Amino acid sequence: MNSLLGAFSEHIASYLVTVEDAEVILKDKPILRILGLQETLLDTQLPSRTDFIHQDVFTEGFFSIKGCDIRFIKYGSGAQVLFFTYGVLGEIRNSFKKQLTAFDPKLFTSIFWDPPGYGQSLPKGRSFVPFQYIEEDVDIAYELLKLLGVCKVSLFGWCDGGHLSFVFSMKYPHMVHKLVIWGTKSFLTIDNVRVFEGMRRLSNWSPMARSEVLKAYDNDVNYITGIFNQYVDMVNLIFKSYGRNVYQELLPYVDVPVLVFHSADDVMVSTQQVQSLLNQLKFCQYYQFSSGGHSCHIKHGQVFNEISRNFILEENKT
What we know:
The chain has helices spanning 2-14, 19-26, 37-40, 92-95, 132-147, 160-171, 190-198, 207-216, 221-241, 271-280, 296-299, 301-313, and strands at 52-55, 58-65, 68-75, 80-85, 108-113, 153-158, 176-182, 258-263, 284-289. Helix 1 (2-14) packs parallel to helix 8, helix 5 packs across helix 6 and helix 7 (190-198) packs antiparallel against helix 9 (221-241). Strands 1-2-3-5-4-6-7-8-9 form a nine-stranded mixed beta sheet, sandwiched between helices. The chain is built from twelve helices and nine strands. The protein has a domain at 58-186 and 248-313: 3-Layer(aba) Sandwich (Rossmann fold), CATH 3.40.50.
């Protein structure tokens, strides 16, 4: 049990990176002159809050959507649009530090967001009504992408972000090109529940994970534990009252190509759970890392990015 808790706390820590590290990530990247985001939206009626920081191909800002101030980062101006979304207690720069500027800005437009209640998006606080919270996030993500002028997108979903990606592809199929999924499962096991239960107390997290999540959420212990405990309550409810099922019934109806990554040592997603995804998805490719835990996109960023790049650019074989 302790090894499971340690591995999961390392997973939480992998979301996190210091401001100094984030600045290094952006340093010495190629600068291209492109049409500014504000100019591209001149013909769009903007919501009340539209704060932008421009660094040529790099844009960071907020949109007010459905009563929330949603933070996003946009990098590049390429025709292939990628949208990255994570799970519980993530944050843009921390969750996707190896992807933030990894994709050629002339070929790709990479978009990242903080869902409501996570990272810098406002208001703080979330509710976790089973399935409803994912579907609400799907609608907000859709509105965000529309405001950014996106017509077609490939979704990169990590953990709960994978659930969002599956639901998005069902609700807005006209908008989805492909999916890249990792750390995601379609049903829960008792081991999943035990790991989450063991993490209710912040004192049970590893020192590194505890330190980093406190930095990311301004040392607000009550907020961190409040969000996490609500999430664990929701996991228990799904396990006990919803047949352990997490959108399993949707998978056969996903009509776009899906790339699934998995690490053999991921304590959060078993081989059985990954095999269930592979068995139910119609158009699926699979890549397994021998190590990398729940964060293969960070531990093996270069390989992950290269395989994903090739998958997105290859012609559909459906």
